[in-house]
């Protein structure tokens, strides 16, 4: 009831101030608070009402001009959205494609409205805060769950959402961690900094507790980039060397067994040295092992895990083979239909039977192969250029504003958004989440930041030009000549 009152009570405010509709829409999208309620609210489509009221508010507003900045990243985004519509018409699985396309278009409507409305610093910072702490709420909750359960159970995302799976949830947490760091670095209040530091640590624990190897790879990649780009490398390294082993020691042996082959394959001696087990030891259950008469809970879970997973390396091999099957399908479909691919829903059993008979269907297991298989080589090219051009806009903001006192906040934000995208690209090597809302919102925010900065610089330059022109004119005063004075040259 409270949730219903909050959402419907905000609708009149949205009619007056449409940007509140973007905030509410983002909150409902990323936090899915109705899934934390019960009764009719659990399945109620609150976001539809918010979306309709926001669109009405935009149409009736005299202040908002329906005009988009014609910059390259935005043009490529529009082209990619059009391209997905074309591939849906020509899809191999029309029914599945229409369902996925419908979901994708709804996401892009939110991105379009964000481009239209969000322009000022306060609006940008508020939206980023809502995104960060909507997903961060589940990260904090997952960190507590990991501590209280000793790390023996997987942390999952909110039900019936894009990130309900443990792997996708870990990816989303990796992407939002840098945004939380932005707010930590932006405030000078020590207690807020400490609270955000604790929050980030709990989110890292939740990533560990998800048992997602892709999430761990993203965390390592982001940590490396963060350290390299940091101006205080020694301080940052000390924090990493303290927090990483602390988080690892909170995890059980079954977690070590799952991630250790991956770390060995990455050839990272520093990280493998942090693990409290011998990674060269085979993980198997002795057939003669038996329980004592009295065992504690941890021993019970270790024993059960051994029964289920007699050899972790075999399971990892099976997981890798499944990925190879999905990637092979994507390549085969793209080679057969290089221009349009298979359309949305190309990773269904029907498509597997058609192109790779005898192989059971798998998830795409990669954002890159997902786009390749479903949108073809042309779609993949547009998608890659869209991301690269948006990151280029973000890097321009970082380089232009990092030493500018008035705009330094935008440089820090752009840097953290790019760091979040690094996590997305790293985890996305083995996770299929190419059409998730969050990366599109990040690209949108980078473009909005660059447009905002250019606008501020243009206004500042214009003010300086006018100020300089006024100074150059000087002041003219009337001169009083004595009566009867004859000026030279005047008769």
Map the helices and strands:
Elements lengths: L1 H15 L2 H13 L14 H15 L11 H18 L4 H24 L3 H28 L17 H21 L3 H20 L3 H17 L3 H17 L3 H14 L2 H4 L24 H12 L3 H25 L12 H7 L11 H35 L6 H20 L9 H37 L18
Quote the beta fraction: under 5%
Total number of beta strands: 0
Average pLDDT over all residues:
85
Main beta-sheet strand count, sense and barrel state: none
Structural class of the secondary structure composition? mainly alpha
Gyration radius, rounded: 28 Å
Number of domains: 3
Instruction: Write down the secondary-structure element order.
Output: HHHHHHHHHHHHHHHHHH
Distance between the termini: 94 Å
Helix content: 55-70%
Low-confidence stretches: 276-295, 307-312
User: Number of helical segments?
Assistant: 18
